[in-house]
Amino acid sequence: MAVIPTLRKTVAYFEEPARGPVPADIYEAQYWEMAGAHACLMNGLLNVYNQATSVPKEKETDFVGYALQWVAALEHHHHWEETIYYPLFNPKFDTASIVAEHATFTKGMHDFEEYLVSCLPEGEKWGYGQVAGPHEQRPYDGQKLRDLVDAFVDPLTKHFMQEITYLEPTKIRASGLTEAEVKHIGDVSTKHMKEMPPATFLVYTIIHSPPSSGFPPVPGIVKSFFCPYVFSLPNRRFWQFAPKGGVVP
């Protein structure tokens, strides 16, 4: 499997449904937001994979921390789906098959996470407040990183591409979920996202979303001022690896 072309194709697949600002129609907004989240996450993985074998020796620890921001973002995305978002669709809209697909790439993801954490110094913070516990630090190997991604990228991309087909607006409407119920789903989700740490979660989401999309749906001043000049500062050593303008070269 040619991973870089596959990831680029997958990002492009999500760019169209995530294009522009969040739709006013609440059913269409669910589809748009999921496509936007997937475009962001695939763009982030593409950027990690693309740089993995060319990281300067003196920047390896920072790059590992950057890659672990992607891990944290993906793990949060699926935890949110399983514990907050999809339970709100039931029983009218059965989401069990969507959640079941997570098992197809979970082991590969955990192997990837464990390897990256093992490359950090003991006591190093990563993700959303996690800390690398006692361990013998391993040397960073960019090809090893790529091999670990190779092991889970196919089921992950297939799941992402399949998932938004479940959330097509006509299908959500056909389930019988009312506008009020779907609005409640959106409101609960938005409240949760606002509680996430801005210096990691929010910054990552903004700077890895393709420029064609208005995702994430936050005020323009957050994207143009607070993100680059306030929220990004505590972890700027990670963001040096981020794609400029959300475009992976």
UniProtKB/TrEMBL annotation:
It comes from the Eukaryota. Transmembrane segments: none annotated. Signal peptide: none annotated. Pfam families: Hemerythrin. Residues 44-163 form the Hemerythrin-like domain. PANTHER family: EXPRESSED PROTEIN, HEMERYTHRIN-LIKE DOMAIN-CONTAINING PROTEIN. This is Hemerythrin-like domain-containing protein. The lineage of its organism: Eukaryota, Fungi, Dikarya, Basidiomycota, Agaricomycotina.
